[in-house]
Amino acid sequence: MGKNKLKRFGELETLSRIFQPEFEEVYQKDYKLKGRWRQEVFKNDKPLILELGCGKGEYTVGLARMNPEKNYMGLDIKGARIWRGVTEANVEGLENVAFLRTRIDIINSFFTPGEVDEIWVTFPDPQEKRRRQKKRLTGALFLNRYREILKDEGIIHLKTDNSGLYTYTLELARYNGLTIDRYTDDLYLTDWDDETVSIQTYYETRFRAEGARIHFIQFRLPTDREIKEMHNDSE
Predict the structure, then answer these.
(1) In CATH, which of 1.10.1740.10, 3.40.30.10, 3.40.50.150, 1.10.238.10 is domain 120-235?
(2) 39-81 pLDDT per residue, tens
(3) Which CATH superfamily is domain 1-112 in?
(4) Residue 130 has what DSSP assignment?
(5) Could you tell me the pTM of the whole model?
(6) Candidate list 105, 125, 152, 224, residue with the active-site label
(7) Which end of the chain has fewer beta carbons closer than 10 Å to its terminal beta carbon, N or C?
(8) Helix or strand run (H / E) with residue 51
(9) pLDDT in tens, 140-149
(10) Is residue 125 annotated as a catalytic residue, yes or no?
């Protein structure tokens, strides 16, 4: 491990707005702040929005700066990456942002049903090999986990440069009859009056400089009522 990574891991221990539970604390167990993030961390009852696989936390911090009336949490397993966002949040004194260092596949250990209002998935690993497609953060396995923590009508946003992941997600949403609010295969040619979709991370800036198109889809998972109706119809 490089010296910079060791230094950043050490600094994370001294900063606020970052939570780093040991895996043994949360695997098939509830984290101590589950259901209490607003009360214990943000000290308010404002909407809670997650960014999954947040990397350096640029999008999480950007959203928090732009929308002080909402709470934002960035989740990632890479401490050396997440260090940047945590550092910026501390330096700027952003009280509406926090970071959680953990694996996304155990997200249900951290949030109760209906605790989360929105989820952002920004430039995730597209998991292009067939044997790894079940690990896609917009795949059925993960969408079922998100449904357990999202409120009814909760929104999921995907922003990606990978056309395969974008098409896969769009087709999956259509196949399952999900509500699709908006989508585009070329975000920066779309005339949307929405600053939140135009935040650019380091990697997005680089992708665009290389000529890549940025794809975006915003959709919603079924409500509890809709799930019950689908279940009744199938009986």
Answers:
(1) 3.40.50.150
(2) 999 999 999 999 999 999 999 999 999 999 999 999 999 888 8
(3) Vaccinia Virus protein VP39 (3.40.50.150)
(4) G
(5) 0.91
(6) 125
(7) C
(8) strand 48-52
(9) 999 999 999 9
(10) yes
